[in-house]
Amino acid sequence: MSRAQTMSSDAFGVLGIGQSNVALPTDVMREVVSLPHALTPAPMAPPFALGAFRLRDELIPVIDLARLLQLDDSQGARERADQVAIVRWQEGHFGLRVDAVHGIAHVSAEHMQPLDSATSEAPPLTPAAFTDGDRLVYVLDIAALFALPGMMLARASHHDNGDQPGTRQAADRKINTERALLIDCGGVQLSLPAAMVREIQPLQTVSAPVMDVPGFMGTTTLRRQTLAVFDPLALAGLDDRPPPKGRLMVVVAVREQPLALCVDQVIRMMAYNPDDVMPLIESHDNPEATISGMINHPQLGESLLVDATRFARDADTLTLAAMYIAREGHTARGEVPYRRFAFVHFDAFGQFVTPLEQLSEVIAMPEDFTPSSRADEGWTGTMAHRDQAVSLIDLRQLLNTPHDTPATDVLIVDRGEYRVGFMIDNARHIEYLDAPADSLIIRWRGEQETGTPPIEQCKRLVVVGTGATKKVLSVLCLETLAALLVDINVPHHCSMIDSAASALPA
Fold first, then answer.
1. pTM of the model
2. Residues 51, 42: contact at Cβ < 8 Å?
3. Which InterPro entries does the UniProt entry name for this protein (predicted)?
């Protein structure tokens, strides 16, 4: 090849897929890596969308070129570890699964053979071809590729800017966040570290205290277990404040000892950064103070953060709480054991319920995620969370209740090999039902006919409790929904309901 031809030629990376070969301009190809054995599948995605994996803190969606070009009609995960060509495109990146990388070819314009378009309505995926030795190589048009439905491009986020000190510092602060339950007691906001919170329950009758101990308000009963009830303001050293008059209690565990805190209002679970906790001057020199400092949340205002370690040093409180022997789990002869059933109530342009056991986590809707081109069908994209890929599904779309209000919360379901996050309007509260362990019955399992949408197959009508305490709930089994969205033929099973109840015909 002459010097003039070399200067006017374009460089292409030649990739092998089956018995065919395709080419991409080298300026869009970033690197080639091995295809991981485990990919996070993309629910409701076409067969050529294999899923996503993490590469150096980046989320890489993978497209199977062989299936895309209809050279392979198989479905499901790939059994052998092939290669992935990482491609840069429109300020983002994605991966192409290929069988082999043959090298670089320099092709001049006169050696490029244009190909006729199969249809006049859409540009061809391979508009031209050239020969590289004895290989016929088809040039892949990236723009036409991304005109296809189901394509997904990972945009740059804070993970992609590791070399920028300011961005890296922000990412480190995000990783270093902790969670606390924000409560209100007589107009004073306290934050309880999430690790010490067990549950939130209505505070029923409180028996008068048998001894005068600061902060001790008396005792109450929860599932046949007697709990000591305390004024959290007094335990926090705020003795000058009147005790709360609320009808709620937060059950906490201190050195494995349960006790109840009387509160007026449970506001919400919030995230905070320990570096932002401001020490209080009056308690800074007191090693026994149970308040470690103040949190100033931009939306929720100021709150006093309880120090769980110092709280556990209060010997009087723990000794008093331990005086009441737990009776939970001990039943008399002939007495039916009770169980606590927990359900999460949430809004998705309508009110819905799902078993708490089916959720691994509830988080705020992330600002950064990899969007999908099929958002109108429910699959919004993929996000990185706790070093894992999570597929984002807009539950409101699946329920045929779409609207323009952005989702605020995500219910995460962990299926082991993959994770699905269901976008909702708001997670409202957790309802605990104390009932005989064998009282849970399924009255209806949703429509199970062939071709029924997954959202209809995951609906359940359940009955919990007996007599006057019997309650009927319409439940969405999100574990089953997550599985069906990935594989419609997966066996139906969901925690708590299918494993603990006998089904009755509708």
1. 0.52
2. yes
3. CheW, CheW-like_dom_sf, CheW-lke_dom
